[in-house]
Amino acid sequence: MLGHGPKGGYGFPNTAGSANGGPWGTNKSGNRHSEFGWDPNQNWRYTSQYDPNCKEPKEVEPTYFWLLTTYFSYLVLISLGHLRDFWGKRFNKKEFLHLMPQDGYAALMSDFDSFYTRRLKLRLDDCFSRPTAGVAGRTVTLLDRKSDDQHKSFQLTGTKTRALNISSYNYLGFAQATGGCADAVEAGIRKYGISAGGARLEAGTLDLHVQAEKLVSQFIGSEDAMIVSMGFATNSTTIPALVDRGCLVISDEFNHSSIRFGVRLSGASVRTFKHNDMKALDTLLRESISQGQPRTHRPWKKILVIVEGLYSMEGTMLHLPELIVMKERYKFYLYVDEAHSIGALGPNGRGVCDYFGVDPRCIDILMGTFTKSFGASGGYIAGNKDVIDRIRVKSHSMAYAEAITPPVLTQIISSMASIMGVSPPLTAATSSPDFKPTLALHPSSSDTDLPALQMAHEPGPAVYGPAPSHYLPPWMHLPPALLNGTEGRERLRRLAFNSRYLSSGLRKLGFVVSGHRDSPIVPLFLFHPGKMPVFSRMMLERVGKDRTPVVVVVVAYPATPLISSRVRFCLSAAHTKHDIDLILRACDEIGDILDLKTGKNRWSADEVIRRAEELVHEN
Amino acid sequence: MNTTTTADPSPVLPLIGVLTSTLVKVQNGFHSIPGSPILIRYIKSSYQNDPYRSLLELFLVVFALRTIFSRRTRGEGQSRNFVELTEKEIDELVDDWQPMPLVDGPTTKFEHTILPSLPVISGPASHKPKLAATGKTVLNLASPNWVGLLEDERIKEVAIGTLRGYGLSPCGPPGFYGTLDVHTQLENDIARFLGIDSVIVYSQSFSTITSVIPAFAKRGDVVVADKSVNFAIQKGLQISRCTVKWYEHNDMADLERQLKAVEKEAKRKGGPLKRRFIVSEGVFENNGAMIDLAKVVELKKKYKFRLILDESYSFGMVGKHGKGVTEVFGVPATEIDLLVGSMAVGLNAGGGFCAGMEHVTHHQRINGAAFVFSAAMPGLLATTASAAINIMQTSPQIYSQLAENIRTFRQGLAKLEGVTIYIPSNHQSALIHVYMLSPPESIELEERLLQDVVDDALGQGVLICRAARLRGQEVFEPAPSLKIMISAAFTKKETEKMANTVRNSLTKVLGSKSSVKVRKLRRISANASLLCKQRSDDDRLWQERMFSNTRPDSGSAYCSIPLAPGPLLRDFRLVHDLCFCYLLTIIILSVCLLSSPGQPSLSAADTCCTHDDPVIHFRRSIMVFSWLALFRLLFPFIFSIQL
To answer: Where in the numbering of this chain does the Aminotransferase class I/classII large domain appear (chain B) (predicted)?
Structure first.
């Protein structure tokens, strides 16, 4: 991230020539700023922290006109779809063969299940699954493609476009092919190879796994942690180890699909509550506890409340302090999915607990992924030692799934250590310096009968210290900027500024934006299905003075409610303030064309950009 | 509406007076609403013309009102079981409620030893890894490393090359800029390698089949599955909520029986054609046995089932080039409808894949949960997998080395005396499971004995492992076994040495501790049902518990929520239904209007037709019914917009 400044423009050429070489080639020179932008201005920094005086802006409701026309759009789309199906099945049978029973076989996909894909998504398929090459950092290289048969198939044209990337979950900008972390991963590959070989409960445990799990638990501030090789599977294979029949899971209605998957596998009963509505949760808890199990009215064995720290489609943040108070009252267990918040929130980057100053040991299970902030993959489960040890022997992933691979572990260790900073053993460090890689249970596990809750009452806020140097593998050499934590801190502060700036800026421009202002996920509502592809295409092929292409994510029905199609921006520490300016201007231009703005007291794009610092620090 | 009451002189005259005055007030109020005279005129004329129709319309209004005022949240107070409680009572109940601990502690002594007894490897996993605890180098029979790709230097160079071009993680799901060209390249490489239409790659091998099955098999569909299928398949079947029939492990006669039964059942029931699948594994993860693919394919064609074949272990392990069981049996891979394999096991990279026809993989790109909702796998895992395939294609001699090693090992093990073991694994399989033929009375004791064998072998420098099982979570509890994975990386001498070591350990531990004579069990060595110990409760009952989602549950209000498609899909269905309704209405209306010349509009039809024309009468009823249907859907819909 340090180095010479950008030479004019936005610091990266958007021609095909600069795109990375083929998969087998190396890329040691150039493109550094295309992965991570150079932005030395210290005024453009902010600290992500809960401020009770800071009022969150009121959610802007869409006008009835927008709502009705959106429904009407779907009506037209669906009617046309059915007409085309009706017609096609009779006169163009070839295209519909796989949807109709034939030769004694039932259709492999039902008509209705694939209707959305065929008749609605297909129309905007050019905005999804765009193939890329190279690093998904500040910029991304798109492989240009075209379709001659209305998106049924795509052909690569052979050209490439480098575009500003506001879509990847690269919150702290660790998606890099160069730099300290990548060097560490290279050293890791040379030492460890690619695969860990086998499941963790068989022979797939390397010393690297043990080291990474120790570091993760230190990072989170919990007693112990375990690592699973896939983020989705972290939820879907762990929840069945926690709850079963006779238990109740209370789940936020917008929880991720992996949580639903896991809960369904567990066999526990589920109730959902309105998104992030703590009153609704309170009512539901009172009802559930007082009514007990359905029919028998027997008390529930246990109640597990599953929520997310930061909701990936809404950008809303969990009301953690209220939830902790309710946890005291209602004695439920709390499972917080920090897939998006870990690394991205809080002054130390330790997620929602850090953001609100809540002791992470108050929460029974903390789950998170490494795909997002750490530029790796997989997920972790953190909690008390006896709980984690029990999950280790009961979780599907530990017994049957492949262990997480060494290169990924190296990336986790190096990026996490650089956020924490590394220091010689501290007094606060919990572990003895002689690190022995063993998974042994605590010898005194006779008190496991005590509810885990009793462990959760340790007072005092969490102290997030640096990583003790003996937690790192001895062969891993990180550059000084990563070791002393200055770069990590810089990344956190840049992300916090960028998030707040874009979120506030879009609101001032008059867009309908939801979510918390400190959230690095900023959804901008489009509502009409037809505006999704147009927005995406216009961002990519911009008209006007500045033609820097931007790639955005448009999200619709399967991931969001039907009515609220949106564009989702994911900010990164790799973006510079100029990048955000560019996005604001681009949105401003397109917003006028697509009629996306509403409300009074709108600012012009120039004014928003000029008063950026004021906007960010405004309460 | 404003019916005139002819007042009889009666003692309740004042009451009637009050009523009449109220009525007049209401009437005046009603008249002041703009458009009300039209409504009254309409009702009057329609009542005169067709009293039935007015009745229908009245019903419609009542129905609409009911729909508006009915509660839209399920399970709340609606259940007949709901007990009304005062706030104070609820507070007391909340105070009294004591949850069970979040996790149960280890219940047995043996469970305490599971985690400490796990080997931790210091340094890279290879065929000769170093143990962290002792610092000793051991021979590794516990990692899938069929052709020795674990420590291949070429692969490392490829990985570093990719790292320098792509970074590590694509930082997003495949749908949102997570699709790298190297992923597509890998998909093409696998497809070409297997000779199959198209391939989709998932980022974890375990989650692949768990996600593939529910993408196709839905409620009401029938799956006939082998009793020994691995845990991932069991979970996939559970989540798909389809009807599962089990056939005895690798018993083709029983498979045919089950297929026949399904066919018969379908004929008896009638109704639309259901999707039907056979689910099995190439080489079974649970015991190393191999499927009789030729027979299964024959049966599947005969009874018109589709085949989902999990080749997680066999892909990269068996066949002349490691293409899996299709290569062994000479069955074209295109005959398998859904072929699932693993890059983590067979190619020593990471992730899994599903191969099939183009529309099969395309469907998964939006319906495969673990594909859509998960980040794409790191680019370097894709290129290393591609490189591994390249190595497998260009150097088939590694497979002859592997076959040689398997033969040597099994021959060495066969010299075992004094202890009776049972190896159900196929002679071509590099995955060898060793079962005790005369097991002690409890599973725990058996596991402990096998663990002793593992520890003893480790002491002699050979790393093997006890097959990890989740006791109590499998559908059919598999018997404990030793899991041995042979690699082509070993020389013949090393393989012989390892076989000797394992044999010695088996003799030492099992020979001394269990002087149990071989009981009736020997004769079933051909019958693999030994491998599936039935649970203590009735197998049928258990199955029902695992897979009964069609059974109406006692607490439907509670249980139906997670099973329902969720608010998003409901929303979509609603709009979809509504749209259907509109279409229906438009069609019916246009048919009615077009076929009645002289009556161009609805209001005209009301006033100038006579009610004794049966055709018009019929047409009008259809119209009313369509309006009824429209309202039925329109009302909840309007109110779901949260006006």
So the answer is: 175-499
